[in-house]
Amino acid sequence: MSGTDVCVIIAARNAAETITTAIASALLEPEVAEVVVVDDASTDATEAVARAADDGSGRLLVLRLDVNRGPSFARNMAIRHSRAPLISILDADDFFLPGRFAKLVDGDDWDLVADNIVFAEHASVRDVLSGSIEQFAADPTELDLVGFVAGNISRRGARRGELGFLKPVMRRAMLTEHGLHYDEQLRLGEDYALYARALAFGACFKLIRSCGYCAVVRSNSLSGQHRTEDLRRLADADLDLLALAGLTAGQRRVLRRHERHVRDKYRLRHFLDLKASGGLSGAMGFAFASPTNLSAVTKGAAFDKLELLRRRNPSAMESGAARPRYLMAGSAAKAG
């Protein structure tokens, strides 16, 4: 294999309706030497559909887990079963845009390199597939730990757009050197935790604004579903990062901000769980147990009510036809 060969990893669960498009988009890229699909104990025909997507090139490997272990376990398993020096993650309901890797893997000035993401509502996927997306100039920049973590602190009322959505190509040698892998305790924010740890160890994360990845927004997407416990574990992952030696004061500050941000989400969700299971009395007992609990619950509940009102009264722009949106703003590409 050459140094620019890519292994595309797809962790899939109940993705029979979408995985053909995902696999096909990967196999169409000439830089892709391997596609490893791990069916995470699907209850539908994901495994069979994935095998049927084989193009005969010998690059597709489909593995199956009999017990659901989560995306981190599935991705680690796929990495162990692959050999290519570059690793790229693709979610089972997303797809690559043609020519993505030719723009990404050129050069050796990076350990991770990511491009822009177009988020497509189901109604606008056809537009994306037809090439009706904006062409942004690459404008390469380097993303550091402070900027990355700060970019994952979302704002209430704003569309989700955290930098944790980035799908970088990663050098296997970098992961091996630092003993990096996906945290199998996490089923939420596993990408964030891995990238943040790599940056803490000094990895170079290159970012370009040209778009090569399409994330399809679906109401039933597994990435949009998480348990209250998943939030607590993600907040704990920040504490693990804070325990690393050698962090600067600025890095520690932003990690604490992110930990509080996620922990407050956990506190609100835990309050609502207690209310649903045991009534208001037990939930209020939790809320008044500490000032931090009370602040998280009152602020979170108020913001949630405002968000509900906003959704009931969408603006004219929001109520129009679904249009692709982008993770990062960019300037128009210059004509070649």
From TrEMBL:
Its EC number is 2.4.-.-. Keywords: Glycosyltransferase, Transferase. Gene3D superfamilies: Spore Coat Polysaccharide Biosynthesis Protein SpsA, Chain A. Residues 7-118 form the Glycosyltransferase 2-like domain. The keyword Transferase applies. Pfam families: Glycos_transf_2. The keyword tRNA-binding does not apply. GO terms for molecular function: glycosyltransferase activity. InterPro entries: Glyco_trans_2-like, Glycosyltransf_2, Nucleotide-diphossugar_trans. PANTHER family: GLYCOSYLTRANSFERASE, GLYCOSYLTRANSFERASE 2-LIKE DOMAIN-CONTAINING PROTEIN. This is Succinoglycan biosynthesis protein ExoU.
